[in-house]
Amino acid sequence: MGQKFQYDESGGTFFYFLLSFLALILIPATIYYWPRKKKRDLNAENRECKCPGCVSKREHLKKAEPWKGPRNFFIKLVIIAGWIILILLAYKVSQFDYEMANFDPHEILGIPLGAGQTEIKKAYRKLSVILHPDKKDTGNEKEFMKLTKAYQALTDEEARRNWEKYGNPDGPGAMSFGIALPSWIVEKENSFWVLGLYALVFMVAMPIVVGTWWYRQIKFTGDQVLLDTTQLYYYFFNKTPNMVLKRVIMILAASLEFDKKKNPEIVERETDNEEVPQLIKKLQNLSEKNKEIPLCYLWSIKARAIIHAHLSRIPLNPNTLEQDRKYIIGKCPYLINEQVNCVNQLIMLAYAGRIPKLPSIETVENCMKLCPMIVQGLWEFKSPLLQLPYINDDNLKYFMSKKRQIKTPQQYAQLKGEERRNILRNLTDEEYENVAKVLGRLPYIDFQTQVEVMDDDNPKDVTAGAIVTVTVTLVRRDMSTLFGDETVQEATLIAENGAEDAPKEGEAVESAAKRPAWLKQKKGGKKTKKSSKPANKVAATTKPKVEESPTPNSDRKREKPKPKEIVGDGEEDDTDESDENDSDVENNDKSSADDEVSKSNEDDDQEWEKFQKIHDRDKSLEGKSKTSRPVHCPLYPLNKQEYWWTYICDRKSKTLLTAPYHVTSLVEKEIVHLKFTAPIRPGVYSFTVCLRSDSYIGFDQQKDIKLDVKEAPAEITEHPQWEFEDSEEEDQAENNDRESEYATDEDLPDDD
């Protein structure tokens, strides 16, 4: 028996190839690309703001995707056509009847097993009359040949032996391997067309597609910002280390995304020659006569004027400049985030000594400050209350009275419902309902910090040169938790302080809500702090030593005091000295046992905390999500998510200790680990942990932390053979530089 390789003449095996190839593409394509309609959430629609700005924004977003419906229809049509082809191919393959694949002569002749020669001949004659090729109606040459072979297999001795041994009356044949390609592909007369198609696909089309994609990708950063724009930011921030907010706006407007030569999506009109100069006359401090390149280019001046008009809420022509405003403002948050990254990189380069000038912390904070201004369409000196719908400069006067001065949404949310409604009594019920919806969905962030030295035996002790980890815990709630209703206050107190601190029955709930963390305390607050200290001291003296550092399991494992021991037959020991000695021994035994229990519990708690920190650290290394909470921003043309920046800085020396971490997934709770190197010199240092919003004005927070840096223990023995004379001067210079970066509380005076 030989082997025979041949191309598929009938096309049967090629259909198998097409069927499997199409199924591999069609099944995942259907799962991932089939258009699905989003379920209509009535609750979400009810929570949406119905102010004119939000309504027009939603209509604009719907009109901005006119191709979405036809695209979905085309995707459905292609997928359905693919499945139809797949079903037809499957049916075609199922109809293939390969000759002698399951050869059974009894089944072909329609006779039972063990039939005699007479019965075999009778069945053959009967079927041959019907299937003979000469018969016009019932003749079938292929079936007649199978019938003849079946008859021979049962009547001819040699054919019968071949069938019983090889399954084929003709005897052993060559094993045939079909190549799943039609034979016309390798025919000589078609070679030119086949090679031409191969060259066109693999040598022309594919290199062009890959090269075009690569050429477009290398022009952008990971955040889809032009590399030329990033280089422009590096140049200007290095040139002006201490950059004011006005110049940050100028640099933002000079981004090459707004130049038609770099971005073909930019539209230039003839009407710009008239409308842009008229707009510039309405604006102040635009600095349109600046001679720096590219700040002096017309496209840069136009973008700058549109940004100023957006921040001043000046209406523009809806057919011309308003369209440009939507495009330019939609790009700004991504560009501002790139500015923050560039300033941070320059600061790191300055610490490394690669550039002479160190950008100030005011520069990076001005970049962060600009982002919520762009999103809300509001200058920083304006009232944060203007972020609420229907609030304008005319009705801001209602928030100011002799009794109270409402300056922030947080203060307004703390009022009772009647007082809030009374302030905006000029609005209709529907308009006030929208104000309450937006106010209740604003973020209320619980901002907590914890300082420690990770992977150390004593995480609370900070030594010189140690890696300090500041764990920032952000808990996001809605502003509705601050509403001045008594029921809301009681639920908030229970949620924040637990059931033990909740007001008991019969106790009055305070009318004013808990003061937010970001509001500065009054000077009189220090008195309450002093008055609370003696009470704490008295309480501490009355408690036993074990209770000074309680643990979660210490109360549960504390033993009850035992009764007095009885001596002899029910007679008590009457001597006072023996009672005192016995009680002292018993108390010492109890205190030692309690100390051991508390120490073991503390060790268990520390081990658990370390495990949790390692788990949180590993979780933070995973991919960052870009979904948090939607932002109310009717003047921003796109949908926006709440993002935050958190970082550590030294206000006295005006230095940045950690790179700003961009928090992009704060839905309910987020834990961020910020690390920096402790100062080389021992002493007490004051640093500031900052939290800044990129979406709302007036929601920034900061917490001061103090580090008592102690001298590092000399645990490593010096080995003279390991020292290098050449590196001593470099190490000394590096230590001097690091010492100059920080200043203790004694070195620098407090800021007024």
From TrEMBL:
Residues 104-167 form the J domain. It is found in: Endoplasmic reticulum membrane. One of its GO terms (molecular function) is RNA binding. Keywords: Chaperone, Endoplasmic reticulum, Membrane, Protein transport, Transmembrane, Transmembrane helix, Transport. GO terms for biological process: post-translational protein targeting to endoplasmic reticulum membrane; SRP-dependent cotranslational protein targeting to membrane. PROSITE patterns: DNAJ_2 (PS50076). The chain crosses the membrane at residues 14-34, 73-91, 192-215. CDD domains: DnaJ (cd06257). SMART domains: DnaJ (SM00271), Sec63 (SM00973). Residues 544-567, 587-601, 608-625, 710-722 have a biased composition (Basic and acidic residues). It holds the Pfam family Sec63. Gene3D superfamilies: 5' to 3' exonuclease, C-terminal subdomain, C2 domain, DnaJ domain, Sec63 N-terminal domain-like domain. One of its GO terms (cellular component) is Sec62/Sec63 complex. It is a multi-pass membrane protein. Residues 520-532 have a biased composition (Basic residues). PANTHER family: SEC63 DOMAIN-CONTAINING (PTHR24075), TRANSLOCATION PROTEIN SEC63 HOMOLOG (PTHR24075:SF0). This is J domain-containing protein.
